[in-house]
Structure formats: C-alpha cells, structure tokens
Amino acid sequence: VNNGNTYEGWYIYLANDITLDINEEWEPIGKYSDDNTEPNMQFQGIFDGKNYKILGLYINKENDRYQGMFGYNIGNIKNLTISTDSYVKGRGNTGAIVGYNCGEILKCTNQATVQSSYNNTGGVVGKNEGYVNNCKNEGVVENTSQATGGVVGWNCTGGTVENCYNNANVITEYQMTGGVVGSNDGVVRNCFNNS
Questions:
Q1: Which residues, in sequence order, are bridge partners of residue 80?
Q2: Quick one: which of 26, 59, 66, 122 has the most CB atoms within 10 Å?
Q3: CA distances (Å), 159 to each of 6, 22, 48, 164, in order?
Q4: DSSP code of 193?
Q5: Which residues lie closer than 8 Å to 177 by C-beta, 6 or more apart?
Q6: What is the DSSP string of 62-121?
Q7: Is residue 136 within 8 Å of residue 106, measured between CB atoms?
Q8: Which positions ≥6 away from 113 have C-beta within 8 Å?
Q9: Measured distance CA(104)–CA(46) in Å, rounded
Q10: What residues does 43 pair with on adjacent strands?
C-alpha cells in the first residue's frame, strides 16, 4: 500500500494467528500527510481477520502521526484482534487497528496498550470519518493531549460509532476524554463504557 497499490477490489484474509517480531518496528499500512508534503496512500481493499489475532505488533513513533496496524484506511477491515502483547505509540491520530479511518471497521478488538502525545487517540481508531461497528477496546489508552477515547479518539462529522464498548482504562489529564469516544462531531449509538 505504501508503494502505491491500494488493493481496491482485493479480499485479503488471515488463515491463522500472525506473530510479528516484537523487536522490529511495524510500518503502518497506508499513510496520510497533513501538509501534503507526501502523497497519501490509503488501503482500499477488504481485510478480514477471520477472528484471528495479530501478536507482537510494535510501534514506537512518538513524533509520527497516523499510527496503527493500518495508518490510513478507506476500505473494510473486520474480524481482527490486536493482542495483549502489542504496543502502539504515536503522536496523535493513533489507534491500534487504524490511525485514520474513512472506511469501515467491523467487529475488531484491541487488547494492546496505546499511547500518544497529541490529539485523537483511541484504542481501536484514532480519527474516524467512516463507520466503526461492533468493536471493543480491552487495552489501556493513555494520552498527554486531548480527544482520547477507549474506542475512538475523535469521531468527526460524517463518522459513526455504534454497538461498541470499552473495557479498559483511558488515562489523560486533558479535555475531550471519554470511555468510548473522546470528542464527537458525528453519531455515537448503542455504545457503553465498562471501565
């Protein structure tokens, strides 16, 4: 994806759990540039985790935005779990599954610790302008800035979050913080926080 193949029309799925090398830093699938200094590369296909897990996902990029398993998504990501032995750290617009979502995230679970030092940080999605449904967060989310949520950091205008829940601590001293969504300009429906 980061080299220009969007995988539009492709159906990609896991056939088993995938264990990544925890000592090798993951490069998010897809990237987004706020200042247009680089071309945006978005994932446009279907990624079906088939209820398997990604283990050993490691990202420690405190100066980089749009961090997660996927950096920028306008496709469909579903049935995927990021396991407890994973760690994701970025500088805002950071979530374990997707940093910036304009597509669909369905039935995904985060169990990893997610940390950030800037706006829009969530357990599952950092910034959402798409559709997030039936997702849950079971990993600690910690941010030193605002717009921090257990499931989604910032649910933007046009974004929808429904049938989701948070079951872990959300830690920050800043405003716009929520168990499910930190900051909301879209639709949040039938969700709950259990932490």
A1: 52
A2: 122
A3: 22, 32, 21, 14
A4: E
A5: 146, 147, 148, 149, 170
A6: TT-SSBSSEEEESSEEEEEEE-TT-EEEESSSEESSEEEESSEEES-EE-SEEEESSS-E
A7: no
A8: 86, 87, 88, 139, 140, 141, 142
A9: 9
A10: 73
Segment 133-152 shows an average pLDDT of: 97
Distance from the Cα of residue 157 to its chain's centroid = 18
What pTM was estimated for this model as a whole? 0.96
Q: Is residue 45 over pLDDT 90?
A: yes
Return the closest-CA partner of residue 152 out of 100, 87, 81.
Answer: 100
pLDDT of the residue at 39: 86
Residue type, 142: E
Please return the burial class of 190, using the count of CB atoms within 10 Å of its CB with bins 0-12, 13-18 and 19+: exposed
67: exposed, middle or buried (C-beta count within 10 Å: 0-12, 13-18, 19+)?
buried
Is the pLDDT at 58 greater than 80, yes or no? Answer: yes
Tokens of residue 194, six digits: 């259990």
